[in-house]
Amino acid sequence: MADDAAGAGETTEQPRPEARLAHAVRVAEQALIEFEIAVETFRVEVENFSRLHHQRLGPMYARLDELDAQIAEARAARTGDPEDLRKAQDARSIVMPMPGVDELFHDWIDSDGLSPEAAAMLTEQPVRPPKRVRPTDEARKLYRELARKAHPDLAQDETERARRDEFITRVNAAYGRGDEALLKELAQEWAAGPVLPEAELSEADELYARLNWLTQRKELLTVLAQELEESAIGAMLRMAPDDPDHLLEEIAEQLLGEVSQRETELAGLVE
Fold this sequence. Notes:
With 271 residues, the protein is mainly alpha-helical. Helices cover 75% and strands 1% of the residues. A hairpin with a 2-residue loop joins strand 1 and strand 2. The longest helix has 63 residues. About 3% of the residues have low confidence.
């Protein structure tokens, strides 16, 4: 009976509800950070690819617009039809100044004229891939490590959040430029800096508020990620996620073919 009484007096200690909630918050924080890293990585890829796309292909699109306008004008001059005249005016209204050969190939022009890359393109020879449009694998690794360690969402007071915000801003800027050397310096800086202990959350209302904020932040990032994926550049990157440089080459070849076709059509109209 004594043993039974002793057994009845023993209770298994259960985790406090606040402790379980604090664990859920920590899990949500880490999940959000990983999601933010993925979204920021893709955003940088889209931004860099968009910049290179405009640099390499923008003049070709402009040339096509100019040729379309000239074709429409030549056709209108032949027919005198009011509808053809209207189409010619519409085509001309969207045209930027026609690029010259130097603009068309940008930095593919050297002191001796067309660079080997430009000459190869015109003669249908293999072209060297353009500069990388994404940070190196090492830069991506450094960025992810720094984002996980220094992310502002891990701060438990405003002073620490401000310090992390300023640091992550510099990390994002270095990653956006693909500056691997600077990312290494930032990693050393963070390792040498103060590491403040994380305050233990104990109040249920604070934990619920934190979890609610994390949920809202995730929803905003989901919208941003969807917008990036559905953008024209994002869609192009999804077509060739492992080799976007080659995709640019293919598009450039296609555009040059369209330019050639338009020039032939225009020549036939002005003869």
